[in-house]
Amino acid sequence: SAAAIEAGRRAYELDRSHVFHSWSAQESLTPMTVIDAEGSWIWDGEGNKLLDLTSQLVFTNAGHKHPKIIEAIKAQAEKLCTVAPQHANDARSEAARLITELLPDDINHVFFTNGGADANEHAVRMARLHTGRRKVFSAYRSYHGGTHLAVNLTGDPRRIASDDDAGVEHFLPAYTYRSYFNAADEAQEAERALNHLRDLVMLEGAGQTAAIILEAIPGTAGIYLPPPGYLQGVRELCDEHGIVLIIDEVMSGFGRAGKWFAHQHYGIEPDIVTFAKGVNSGYVPMGGVAMDDAIYATFAERAYPGGLTYSGHPLAAAAAVAAISAMREEGMVENALTLGEEVIGPRLAALKDRHPSVGDVRGVGMFWAIELVKDKETREPLASYGQTPAVMSELVAEARRRGVLPFMNMNRLHICPPLNTTAEELIFGIDVLDAVLDLADESIRG
Ligand code: PLP
Asked: Which positions are tagged coiled coil (predicted)?
């Protein structure tokens, strides 16, 4: 409506006058105003309707304006809007029960946080206190959050400005398409990447190592699936040396990868799982650390030195209970797995065949990446590490003009729609990407 567009215009002006945005040179920004949203669709400041292939920042797993989640938040607000973390609260208790039910049998407790970064901070703190050791290993080409320790755990260009002595060692990940180990196939990649990690742990001191933290499927850094055997190998390495295995499911969890948690594709049991985002579709901020009984036992008689005013906030917890219940009732996780396999996978494969600029397509569930290259043979990325070439921005702008909002990171487009997106919507979205990828093809010609 005209009123909504006018309100959006004012929001934009005030944003530019007063709002400071994440990770950005402030004067370079032209943020898209969102004036409305429903299901897998959003409306921009001019009233244009866009298919949201980003799930915002990969968190609206149940889509926008899910009536059951909205109803639960309203009901909780009227009943008891907030309560201090030291009290017991039915919404929080039920959220913890539902979350642990989805995880391995020996994961029975949840420490709630405000988001993903603080979940990882607390997971590492717990691992350090549990083992009495300090070093933590995390992967390059990863993202674990923007706070002090979490950004140091992160292995992407955003870490570098805040690099600090946080007790973190980085290792090269298993990433078959861009193998650091000259691997010819996935089996070789798994074996060589594991040997590398095993060597680093030995050289840095296994007896000094508290934890290894890994995204089950790295998200922002490229949605590259671990080769078969890799995560099992990391699990064995941790078992051998009494190292805590922390699996970061902040982006990959809650159905994103077509299972409740992405690590469930790989048959491993983590000691700690961190989560946020999809736990309640991001309707109210919430993250958490789900820990196994051994970690819990460390803090059974000894105080855990950590806490948050809003740990397990009732509004967020009620939203989580409703989101998880709705995902179950409506088969959203199954929908993600099936449509990933039957619609997204084959269509992206065809798109790779058609476009010289598409080097790799990969993913599972509603969690996919298109990697753009200058040359399919050499696999030279369309943008060098940490850069976004102009053509990527043009491509996203053209997709928007055609009614689709994709996620962009360096030389990649990510397709991460809500889990209840339909086949027809996905086909529309991928057809638009197919058309706009001609721009990338043109940019590498000649
Ligand atoms: N871990 C992963 C895998 C993420 O993708 C993110 C956010 O994108 C985080 C941690 C940080 O979460 P938050 O931004 O809620 O602190």
From this structure: none
- Overall residue count recorded for the chain in this entry: 446
Judge whether 197 and 237 are in contact, CB under 8 Å.
yes
pTM flag (> 0.95): yes
Report d(CA 209, CA 239) in Å as an integer: 12
Cα–ligand 1 centroid distance for 277 (angstroms): 8
Give mean pLDDT, residues 272-292. 98
Question: How confident is the model over 297-326, as a mean pLDDT?
Answer: 98
What class has domain 67-329?
Answer: alpha beta
pLDDT band for position 374 (cuts 50, 70, 90): very high
Closest of 64, 62, 61, 29 to residue 43, by C-alpha: 64
CA of 116 to the centre of ligand 1 (A): 5
Question: What is the per-residue pLDDT across 87-136, written as a single tens digit (0 to 9) for each?
Answer: 999 999 999 999 999 999 999 999 999 999 999 999 999 999 999 999 99
Q: How confident is the model at residue 446 (pLDDT cuts 50, 70, 90)?
A: low
Ligand 1 first shell, C-beta below 6 A = 57, 115-117, 120, 143-145, 215, 219-220, 248, 250-251, 276, 287
Please give the mean pLDDT across all residues of the chain.
97
Ligand 1: residue whose CA is nearest its atom 12: 116
Largest CA distance in the chain: 68
- Here the tokens at position 368 are 């996919």
**3-class SS of residue 2:** helix
Domain with CATH 3.90.1150.10 in the chain: 32-65+331-444
Indicate the top mutation candidate among 143, 156, 279, 409 to test ligand 1's pocket, ranked by most ligand atoms within 8 A of CB.
143
Question: 366 near 418, Cβ under 8 Å?
Answer: yes
Residue 421's alpha-carbon distances to 42, 56, 57, 335, 426, in angstroms, are 13, 14, 16, 8, 7
* CATH topology (fold) of 32-65+331-444: Aspartate Aminotransferase, domain 1 (3.90.1150)
Task: Give distance in angstroms: CA of 151 to centre of ligand 1.
Answer: 10
Within the chain, all domains assigned CATH 3.40.640.10 are found at 67-329
pLDDT digits (tens, 9 = 90+) for 68-97: 999 999 999 999 999 999 999 999 999 999
Q: Is the ipTM of this complex over 0.95?
A: yes
DSSP H helices, 173-257, are: 186-204, 230-241
Tell which residue, 167, 164, 166, 186, has the closest CA to residue 175: 186
Q: How far is the CA of 252 from the centre of ligand 1 (A)?
A: 10
pLDDT band at 420 (very low <50, low <70, confident <90, very high): very high
